[in-house]
Amino acid sequence: MGTRSIDSDGSQDTLNRLDHRDPLVFDTHELGRRPGAMRKVSRTLEAPEGFGIIDVIGVPEKSPIELELRLESVVEGVLVTGTADAHVEGECVRCLEPVDFDIDVDFQELYYYPESDERHRARTTGTEDLDEDSEEETYRLEGDFFDLQPVLRDAVVLALPLQPVCQDDCLGLCSECGARLSDDPTHHHDAADPRWAALQGLSAAPGDEGDGIKNSDTREGAAENQEK
């Protein structure tokens, strides 16, 4: 959660206090600021809430995520390159059956030193071909620490299918009874001829069958008498 501080000149500046105990917050102190310095970090952590596409598919909260990171010191900050292995769960958009599989995502992000970030923003301010919608989001170090969570979340979400299916040729559900068609590809319902739809429900009432036969016999007899 961010806190608001007031500088000596009276201006206000927002400082995001990172929780150093958060497993997605990393310390770069040992890396130093000499360009070219590099160190590797491996970490297994529990997935935070919201790593996925809501109500569709995602990494279950508190399930393990394995991280392999390479931290490199560059002139403007720390370049973070990494991979993440995780297990995702969801449901098929066609038949609603459970879907789960493992994903392996790659990501890379530059975390600016605070002073480098200010110079970067000064260079881009007022650029004619750069507006608020097209400006790329930048991340910066807070002291020696950086928060990987937003970068990792974006990488995971972009790797997920927008419409997951249990199998590429899933046939979905029967629109009439909801049966899973892939379990029975020959499943069908006998549809009435629409030309007779107006006559449905007009069957004779119980006890009327005999009267119908009698009326038919009477009409046939009258026809024979006319011919004679």
What does this structure look like?
With 228 residues, this protein is an alpha+beta fold. It is built from three helices and eleven strands. The protein has helices at 114-124, 149-159, 209-227; strands at 2-6, 12-16, 25-27, 38-46, 52-53, 57-58, 64-73, 77-91, 98-112, 139-140, 145-147. Strands 4, 5, 6, 7, 8, 9 and 10 form a seven-stranded mixed beta sheet that branches. The longest helix has 19 residues, at 209-227. The chain is elongated and about 85 Å long. The chain starts with a strand and ends with a helix.
Mean pLDDT: 79
The coarse silhouette is elongated
Name the assembly state: single chain
Strand percentage, roughly? 25-35%
Determine the N-to-C terminus distance.
106 Å
How is the main sheet built?
7 strands, mixed
Alpha carbon gyration radius: 35 Å
**Helicity range:** 10-25%
- The helix tally amounts to 3
β-strand number: 11
Q: Which helices and strands, and how do they pair?
A:
Blueprint: E1 2-6, E2 12-16, E3 25-27, E4 38-46, E5 52-53, E6 57-58, E7 64-73, E8 77-91, E9 98-112, H1 114-124, E10 139-140, E11 145-147, H2 149-159, H3 209-227
Parallel strand pairs: 9-10
Antiparallel strand pairs: 1-2, 3-11, 4-7, 5-6, 6-8, 7-8, 8-9
